[in-house]
Amino acid sequence: MAGKYKRTVVGSVVKSKTAGKPDYIQIGTDVALRKGQYLNLESKDFQLKGIDTAVASGVMTGENGEKAKARINDIPDFVRFQIVLVEKNETA
């Protein structure tokens, strides 16, 4: 069963390695954006809280929640946010 929404991680907001240089955006996936779409900036903490909420409400199984948490915890600390495109799933 597919969910109602499709999440695509487009890239990341990354902390600069050089002092005095600004943070930057690193694009990791080719996407075509359309007028009116939104890109969410999701921190590691925000994503972990979302997984806890999904498991507690029964939207996600505990096993899938643990897999998702492991994936999220693998995000390096220099990544401030992941840039996520959320689209309504046409087949849902």
Keywords, please?
alpha+beta; flat; four-stranded antiparallel β-sheet; 92 residues; 2 helices
List the helices and strands and how they pair.
Layout: E1 5-14, E2 24-27, E3 39-42, H1 44-56, H2 62-73, E4 79-88
Antiparallel strand pairs: 1-2, 1-4, 3-4
User: What fraction of residues sit in β-strands?
Assistant: 25-35%
| Global shape | flat
Helix-strand pattern, N to C? EEEHHE
Record the strand order, biggest sheet: 2-1-4-3
Q: Share of helix among residues?
A: 25-40%
**End-to-end gap:** 8 Å
Chain oligomer state: single chain
Contiguous runs where pLDDT drops below 50 for at least 5 residues? none
Q: Return Rg in Å.
A: 15 Å
What is the residue-averaged pLDDT?
Answer: 92
Q: Total number of β-strand segments?
A: 4
Q: How many strands, which pairing sense, and closed or not: the largest β-sheet?
A: 4 strands, antiparallel
In terms of structural class, how would the helical and strand content be classed? alpha+beta
Helix run count: 2
Structural features, described:
It is built from 2 helices and 4 strands, in the order E-E-E-H-H-E. The protein is flat. By secondary structure, it is of the alpha+beta class. The chain has helices spanning 44-56, 62-73; strands spanning 5-14, 24-27, 39-42, 79-88. The chain has a 4-stranded antiparallel β-sheet. The protein has a domain at 40-83. The termini are close together. The longest helix has 13 residues, at 44-56.
